[in-house]
Amino acid sequence: MSLTQRIVTAMLLGLLLGALLNFLSSGNILSAGLQSWIDLYLVNGLFDTVGQIFVRSLKLLVVPLVFVSLVCGVASLGNNSRMGVVASKTIALYMTTTALAIALAVTVASIVQPGVGVDLAMASEFVAKEAPPLKTTIINMFPSNPIQSMAQGSILQVIVFSLLMGFAISKSGETGQRVGGVFSALNEVIMKMVMILMNLAPYGIFCLLAKLFAGLGIGVILSLAKYFFTVVFVLLLHSFGVYSLIFKTVTGLSVRRFLSKMRPALMFAFSTASSGATMPVTLRTVEHRMGVNNSVASFTVPLGATINMDGTAIMQGVATVFIAQAYNIGLGMDDYLTVVLTATLASIGTAAVPGVGLVMLVMVLNQVGLPVEGIGLIIGVDRLLDMMRTATNVTGDAMVTSVVAKTEGYMDTDIFNDPEAGVIRQV
Ligand code: ASP
Q1: Which domains, from first to last, does the chain contain?
Q2: Mind listing the pLDDT tens digit for each residue in 313-359?
Q3: Which of 24, 86, 200, 259 is deepest in the core (most CB within 10 A)?
Q4: In ligand 1, which atom is closest to the CA atom of 387?
Q5: CA distances from 24 to 20, 30, 37, 45, 204 (A)
Q6: Predicted model pTM
Q7: Quick one: which atom of ligand 1 is closest to the CA of 312?
């Protein structure tokens, strides 16, 4: 079986087992002894342990991968001045697609009206975390100590340092070439590590999903069905509509092939709920399966995983309208515009980890004067939505990467068109 098939099987089995365990425990069907054995040793024991180790191993690769692969990418561009164009195109596209995503979300939510008549008493406790001001965010992009940046996993800082180092290598003549050679060899080895870990993914994904669904109440989704399905609808509309349209018109390549090659990355995104942890897989997918050159992908993918969060922006758009309606507070056109702007900027300053979308939502709500406690209303379904919106976030990163690479001549379309390119089989 190909890796994709093995992951799909693992996902379905994990999901089914989780749902079954949930059903058994909520219906009090098993004896108390057996039930507590399952909770203690299986769900919170084996599944949780393996799942957490899996996510950790993915995260383990992020810093070395970003550093080594970006240094390689920039160094090999040499004196090619296109880097500036690649960077500005990428950032412009990331921001435009995010603004589009949130505008779409606000529009659909205003039509569906998911928050009308919601019972405010069902809000659970929510303590808002402070988001840093924009000035701090900008200053924080620049490292004062690269080792510290790497130790803390500050990806934007690692990106800045790697850009500088790669550029310096390209300017250092023969010595630079020797150093570049070392990085290039290291890059190959780290990519191999990504492949090895991807091969173990079915076990990790099975455990993550079994643990998650064993504790996920379906009831809460029903009580928030209108909100939940509005977010899901806009996520699908954006991923399959907006992205496909941009991808097809700009690159002329097959959308179907793009989506089919994205499948493993999407499953990683869904099960880990973190674009950051999925980043190694996204990078491998666009380079080895879609033919994007490392000089573009090594910059656009880590940057996207950090600043591009269209799925998260969609959740924020729908949630803002939902909370306004639930609290019966009218929002004007200028408020909606503020929401679009704040959410677009907020996505730049927040890290790609599970649940960070809620921190950004606090910023958006504060900006338009809506009660932050309103987040307590939607928190129950946030974990599941987080998984789905992370899949959209990752699709956006790959879509923008391919569009930029294709238009700048950094994409090998033969690799893209070859369905077998870069497929991982059992090693
Ligand atoms: N989990 C999302 C991501 O990593 C961020 C969020 O929406 O909370 O992309």
Answers
A1: 3-417 (1.10.3860.10)
A2: 999 999 999 999 999 998 888 899 999 988 888 777 666 677 788 88
A3: 86
A4: 1
A5: 6, 7, 13, 18, 23
A6: 0.91
A7: 7
